[in-house]
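Q: My collaborator sent me two sequences in one message, no labels, and asked for predicted structures for both. Can we handle them in order? The first one she listed is below.
A: Yes, handling them in the order given. First sequence, followed by its structure tokens:
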Amino acid sequence: MSMFNISMGKLQRQLYKGEYTIFEYAPMFESDFIQISKRGEVMDVHNRGRMVTVGIVCTSPSLKVPDIMLLARPAASREEYATCGCATQGKGHKSTQTLELTRLLPLKFVKISIHNGEKQQLRLKLATGRSFYLQLCPPSDAREDLFVYWEDLVYLLKPPVEAYSGTQAIPVIDTTDVPVFEEEDESPAVSLCRDSKR
């Protein structure tokens, strides 16, 4: 699992300080993403993306594949906490903000797939059936293509039946709610104000 051998990210550095002891020494692969719609559009009225740091963690050395997904967002004022201009500018970002850990999801309840490889977009499908779409927002000083590691991870996490045949694995039913993501609004009405508590 070469993706766990790259440099320590900001979420891992923060967890290393010991607030969550289970993750203090756990190998982690993480990247920053912005949330997009299924069509690949940034999901914000102001054309700035909602920043989400996704960390994939292996909590035990005896496991052959990672078992936990962590979701975090920049801890700042509500107006500032979730913006990233990389989707519209085509550039990476560099951030030193403190992160707020918002979700811990067992990977057995999340299916990660490639939504659009060219645009470096992932699809996260929860066991509840809800899907969320993310676009990689690599740091401006990235020396390698991080999305290649995400593609490797997607293949690694596929259930054996799905990886070797055309048969789909049956998802486990769960009632996990992930308000760190904003759902796409299917209604024709457009609101210029978003509820910041979502």
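Q: And the one she listed second?
A: Here it is, processed independently of the first:
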Amino acid sequence: MKQALVDDTEDVSLDFGSEEELALRKAKIRHPLATFFHLFFRVSAIVTYLFCDWFSNSFVACFVTILLLLSFDFWSVKNVTGRLLVGLRWWNQIDEDGKSHWVFEAKRVPAKAASTEAEARIFWLGLIICPVIWTVFFFSTLFSLKLKWLALVIAGISLQTANLYGYIHCKLWGQKSSRVTSRFFVTAEVPKRQTRRISEGPTEEPGKSGTR
């Protein structure tokens, strides 16, 4: 009887890994500073564009301020907040031949380091809504004939659409990929293979002579 009880207790195993992972995903914001700056620069640029005439009569000062906010937003979203909040990253590189290549990277991280659902929701909402707002500004500027603001609005659309384009491709690539790799690692291995083949020299097929 005692031996049967021992056998029953040895077969019991409890795994709370999935429950802990789910709790971490549903937790509150884990990167408050990154979440704040993800929205701060782009919202500040929109607010400044709408109300800059109330604070300053200088078109140049408003233009430069908004452009700086857009530039800060582009850099922070591309290099910092995307990596911390959703584990995605993209960039553009030039190869030795002068050709431009887009590189997209999606990493799978442990549950303890993964972003929460609230962070991912804030990231994607801010990434999608703000380019739509700048598109509305484009048509309103065009129809109201305020052409002096047109270049600034186009810059806003371009910078924020570039981030949206990059992260959508990262997301799609991450869903299709089954391994924790990135396109950068694949392209980085190509020159090494080519160099190795050149150093080894051509190989002769069996049955063929070296002279004709």
